[in-house]
Hints:
The chain has 269 residues and is mainly α. Helix content is 54%, strand content 1%. The protein has one domain.
Amino acid sequence: MNILKILDKLSDDTLFSKTFSRTENLNHISSIGKKAAITAIPLGMGSMLAAETKNENSADSTYFKKDALTDALQLALVLEYLEDEYYKIGLNTLSLIPTADRTVFMQISKHENAHVNFLKTTLTSLGVTPGAKPTFDFTAGGSFTPFSNYSQFLTLAQAFEDTGVRAYKGQAGNVMSNKTVLQAALQIHSVEARHASMVRRMRANKGWIELANGGNMPPATNPVYAGEDLMVQAGFNTATAFGNAAGSASFDEILTGTDAQAIASLFIV
């Protein structure tokens, strides 16, 4: 199953009101990426998902017929495969991660591995064969050398985590009518946001995003942060009330499925 086609299927950009476009930035993207859309679901919910899928009536199941649900889980599995493999390779590369930082990435790696195992079990419980792990290219075609340069390893980790948090929010409208999935997704989303905050601080950045730049990031990552400089939220001008920096940081904007697709595709062969 093609992850990019699934991203398109799950995306419904009309659910969100936009006053800006990222098309121009995305046309010039040269490298960066990570997971998108719905992330893994907490352990122990496989049977609940199966039961809820069975019991939904047609009016409530627009996005949650069995095929849509399992497509979302297959997507989540591919994305968790990506992070799981990235951190495993990093941890297994001698002399890459300083001793003081290994504890952090060991814990993050355990989270991602737990997500992979859970998703495979959940898909099996729904009568679906879990997708095989894709082939990943973490150099993005030679643009990065994350496993020989620790600074680049951290840069890519930040971009992966920041992209995932934004892209996941962009899919929120697709899970709202299923309480079990929504609850699980919110639980995982907060963990992913903590990953992002931790990695950002390891790079001497603030734990949150201010304005359109991710903080000490190369230009190639601009699409990850496009639109993060919005000052008006639901008609409220945050800049007038709090100043530009604090105002823009008060709300974390979404990343649409289309944008996430353009970013993630660079790391999937």
